[in-house]
Amino acid sequence: MALITLNRPEKRNAFSPELLRRWHESLLQAQEDPEVRAIVVSGAGPDFCAGGDIDNMRRRIDLPSLDRKTSLEQEIQTIPLTLARIDKPVIAAVNGSATGAGMDMALMCDLRVAGTRTRFAQRYINVGIMPGAGGAWFLPRLVGEARALELLWTGRWVYAEEAQAMGLVNQVVDDENVLEAALELAGDIAKAPPVTVRYMKRAVKQAATMDLPSHLDLVSSHMTVVTSTQDYREALAAIVEKRSPSYKGY
Q: Taking phi first (over 0 means left), then psi (-120 to 50 degrees means alpha), and beta for anything else, what does residue 13 get?
């Protein structure tokens, strides 16, 4: 298991070029490491992530338009694009506040565990900017178009209980147990057959852009891969022999 911690607590883990670079590198390392079966992302200090650094935004306000676009592509947008290529489970341990692009970074993970006092907000509207990290793509896929537009246009706070009710959060736990609960969930998933877990994630993500016949055709190919693994053979033998496999099975 890999734990990636956004470590800029004095700025509520707001993005800096260095933080984004190291985050990107850590994600790539976790994807390539065969020993890593699940990834947990957390924030140091009382908050998960405040998104863009206002001081950094002010310094760049007079840059030419193309330079601002290039900066966005080469820094913040590397994270969602990298996560889109990672087929291992990624779980966000969301403590405190997750705002703007910080909320988006939680949404682009596969699962989210939050504390009772965790709160989310799409604060872009307050500074007159767009959700540049993919929020307008991820949010409607979780809560629907109308609710997504409401949250984007109003920038209002969504607290843990409501966030769970609308599908933003998978689990709500006591604030002091957020990271522990996320690690426990990741550990449970990591006990499952790793190839099957990864191909399940691929199937779900790929299904979003496919019709049903195409999806079923793809899944039949995935099935030939997972049924060729030793994990599958062991699970099947365990069922036939009425013994428990080493991971959660039937």
A: left
| Size of the chain in residues | 250
- Residues 6+ positions from 192 with CB-CB distance below 8 Å: 247, 248
Q: Report strand pairing: 119-121 vs 171-173.
A: unpaired
Whether 143 and 131 have beta carbons less than 8 Å apart is answered as no
Residue 87 tokens, joined: 């087929």
Spatial distance between the Cα atoms of 87 and 106, rounded to a whole number of angstroms: 16
Considering the entire predicted model, what is its pTM?
0.90
pLDDT for position 249:
47
The answer to whether residues 224 and 190 touch, using CB atoms and an 8 Å cutoff, is no
The whole-angstrom distance between residue 18's C-alpha and the CA centroid of its chain comes to: 20
Q: What is the mean pLDDT of each run of 10 residues along the chain (250 residues)?
A: 95 92 96 96 96 76 83 90 96 97 96 98 92 94 96 97 97 97 97 94 94 95 92 84 57
Helices (H) and strands (E) in the chain, counts: 13, 8
